[in-house]
Amino acid sequence: MTATTFAEEASPPAVALAARARRTRRRGRIIALLFVFPALLLLGALVVYPVLFSVGRSFFDATGIRFVGGDNYTEMFRDPATLKAVRNTTIWVVVAPALLTGLGLILAVLVEKVRWATAFKLLLFMPMAVSFLAAGIIFRLAYDEDPNKGVLNAAAVSVHDAFEGTSSYPTARARLGQGLTQGRDGSYTTGKSVSPGGTVTLPMVGVLPKDLPKGASPAYAAAHEKAASGELRGVVYLDFTPGGGGRQGQVDPGESGLPGMRVEAVRDGRTVASTTTASDGSFRFPELGSGSYEVKLPASNFAQPYQGISWLGPTLVTPAIIGAYLWIWTGFAMVLIGAGLSTLPRDALEAARIDGANEWQIFRRITVPLLAPVLTVVFVTLVINVMKVFDLVYIIAPGPVQEDATVLATQMWLVSFGGGNNQGLGSALGVLLLLLVVPAMVFNVRRFRRSQR
């Protein structure tokens, strides 16, 4: 049999095998498409179609009927609220991912050195299980300006009062027409000058008997004591007799002194002596020189209590919301970076320790460079996430400062559905947000593919 004849006999089975392989591959592709089709359908319905519709809608006016071209994009960058949203979004992108990545790195390194690392990671990761809605409500309460409600202001007031003290008589005021004049700073001064050897009574009102400090005692006896030579005496008392009766401007037997009140002796506009009233409201300046003096109750006696910090005011609302975001996402960053940390070659770390490197040098020159790919992925992922933040801003920021805290996502909702009712402009904002997010997504995908290779 010749070679030509053998090739001719062998070719039909080879062609059949090739055709069968092609049919098998085609069938495999069809089966794969059938399995993928539901996911593609959902992707098209929930992602592709809304994106394309939003792009098209952005070229029409609020009614959706009249084509306006790029007018919505032009108006978007002329609107002060949108410019403020862009500014706030920039603050979020610059501050939040950097802080979260740094905190996650520090915590991941420190957790490796404690025995209860698993419990610590669980506690830090637990906020991820809380919805943004619930977290927003929690922090809205925590940031409340009323120290009786907001835990942060309660702590701030406690620390302030521990170092600065607080006034016991924020509601007190002088009895009108009884010789005390009020200064512009809220202090009270005797209208007539007094000299050593004399006694002065300073009647006050506006303090409820139940609000008197503990240990306050009647002022009647102190008011009738005579001053020694060279001594100036007096009493600060509550000019109110429980049950009624008594005379205004005169210390009656049932009237209480006001203890802890600061009193100053003033001469020629300068304070020469100061003291604090006793439990019965009495005070004395024992060694004053001869001459005329005025007795002054400084404004600090009547200062309003410290109310804490306006966390949700126009100035601090954005940092306050970023703080809530950090509480939620720090555990996420720590766990991802901790996973990368566990894959580091331990021989390199041990070699550095043997060579005499301290822990800071190891962290800065070995750990951080080796973790650079993980840190980059975490940072870019958080950048994508903060660009879309909506829930926390909308829930935590009160209505009056909503515009001061707004970001692109909240501005898009407010313009479209929150009263603006201009879906054309809102769609333009959505397209802008998409264009800002896409580069970070592409960077993350490319980096993932390189790591897979």
Let me know the largest β-sheet: 5 strands, antiparallel
Query: Which structural class do you get from the secondary structure elements?
Result: alpha+beta
Per DSSP E runs of 2 or more residues, the count of β-strands stands at 9
CATH topology name of the largest domain: MetI-like fold
Task: Indicate how many domains the architecture comprises.
Answer: 3
Question: Cα distance, first to last residue?
Answer: 52 Å
Q: How would you summarize this macromolecular structure in one to three sentences?
A:
The protein is α+β, with helices and mostly antiparallel strands and 453 residues long. The chain has 15 helices and 9 strands. The protein folds into 3 domains: 1-57; 71-156 and 311-452, MetI-like (MetI-like fold), CATH 1.10.3720.10; 173-302, Immunoglobulin-like.
Explain how this protein is built.
The chain is α+β, with helices and mostly antiparallel strands. The chain folds into three domains: about 1-55; about 70-155 and about 310-450, MetI-like (MetI-like fold, Orthogonal Bundle), CATH 1.10.3720.10; about 175-300, Immunoglobulin-like. Helix content is about 55%, strand content about 10%. The chain is built from 15 helices and nine strands. It has helices spanning about 5-55, 70-75, 80-110, 115-125, 130-140, 150-165, 220-225, 315-340, 345-355, 360-370, 370-385, 390-395, 400-405, 410-415, 425-450, and strands at about 175, 180, 190, 200-205, 230-240, 260-265, 270-275, 280-285, 295. The strands form two sheets. Strands 2-3-9-6-7 form a five-stranded antiparallel sheet, with no helix packed on it. It is elongated and about 135 Å long. The two termini are about 50 Å apart. The model has no long low-confidence stretch (mean pLDDT about 85).
